[in-house]
């Protein structure tokens, strides 16, 4: 079990000593930090804190004034207010201000603190998960239109191609184009299903073991128009590998990376390499291009929502594509980064590190 990090904020040394003794009874291994004021408490902002006990009266103001700043410094922590006097109005005020609970010092006991911490941590975790789900839902709803455009453009492009091939009587090519269109339709459906799973907080989706070649086949289908229009040259290296993943998500991630490589080619014919290799405990995929590159100072910021390179600002887009990639990598227990060693063009790598679990084998 992880070490519990507790912050006591109280200017009374005797009260802090009492709290230490009571907290050590149920949480002997806890890491307990002390502060005598709000300002000294915030000096610990770089330290992990799971539980905060905050005295109502402090030398630099009331604990009530501090709650918002403490919640900002430690958004995942559970915060309890303590005071020398029981007062229902105080209790109501601190709860409304963002504290999880309130307890008079006269009611302190090891059992009461144990119960408060256990219940508070559960509520704090649920609150954090809800906050994360809300942010993720907001982000994915924003990018729904952004990420639906590629498969819909592919369908339109393939429709035009089918009409031309049909007029020329090349039914074999017509059949091939219909297969590609079916893949694009499936991609559109999968994107909608992904959004549905994010709307439902109880749906985690199901990971599947698929071949990397099958992921690349799906990509070729949804990017058909972009590849044809840009004359992009792509080298695919699957290594004959398979991977445990959420396939629609990984296709979406790679679609965004390849789309960016084409968009930011700097007027040159895009040359892109997509390379998969084994990486414990899963897989690493790299997408390298010969485009305009990413300045060193932007290589971490580009994965934040709505962040775009100034020199690429004339290009259409919302600045959400790479933020979506970061979300998908995180969902796969992986990370994504811009290779700092790349001197020309851009190389972005990401890992897929889902833990072993029962999966449905997919051809």
Lay out the secondary structure.
Elements: E1 5-9, H1 13-24, E2 31-35, H2 38-42, E3 51-55, E4 57-58, E5 61-62, H3 63-73, E6 78-83, H4 88-97, E7 101-104, H5 110-167, H6 171-199, E8 208-211, H7 212-222, H8 224-230, E9 233-237, E10 242-245, H9 247-263, E11 271-279, E12 282-289, H10 321-331, E13 336-338, E14 346-352, E15 360-361
Parallel strand pairs: 1-2, 1-3, 3-6, 6-7, 8-15, 9-11
Antiparallel strand pairs: 4-5, 8-10, 11-12, 12-14, 13-14
Q: What this model shows, in words?
A:
This protein has 10 helices and 15 strands. The chain is of the alpha/beta class. It has 2 domains: 5-108, 3-Layer(aba) Sandwich (Rossmann fold); 131-361, Heat Shock Protein 90, CATH 3.30.565.10. The strands form 4 sheets. The protein has a 5-stranded parallel β-sheet, with helices on both faces. It has a 5-stranded mixed β-sheet with strand order 9-11-12-14-13. A hairpin with a 2-residue loop joins strand 4 (57-58) and strand 5 (61-62). Helix 5 packs antiparallel against helix 6 and helix 9 runs antiparallel to helix 10. The radius of gyration is 27 Å and the shape is elongated.
Name of the level-1 CATH class of the largest domain: Alpha Beta
What name is given to the CATH topology of the largest domain? Heat Shock Protein 90
Gyration radius, to the nearest Å?
Answer: 27 Å
CATH architecture of the largest domain: 2-Layer Sandwich
N-to-C SSE series? Answer: EHEHEEEHEHEHHEHHEEHEEHEEE
Q: Would you tell me the structural class of the helices and strands? A: alpha/beta
Q: Report the portion of residues in β strands.
A: 15-25%
User: How would you describe the shape?
Assistant: elongated
Strand order of the largest sheet: 2-1-3-6-7
Helical fraction: 40-55%
* Gap from first CA to last CA: 40 Å
Q: What's the story with the biggest beta sheet? A: 5 strands, parallel
For the record, what is the CATH homologous superfamily label of the largest domain? Histidine kinase-like ATPase, C-terminal domain
Q: Which consecutive residue ranges, at least 5 long each, have pLDDT under 50?
A: 197-203, 306-319, 356-363
Q: Total strand count, please?
A: 15
Question: What's the mean pLDDT score?
Answer: 82
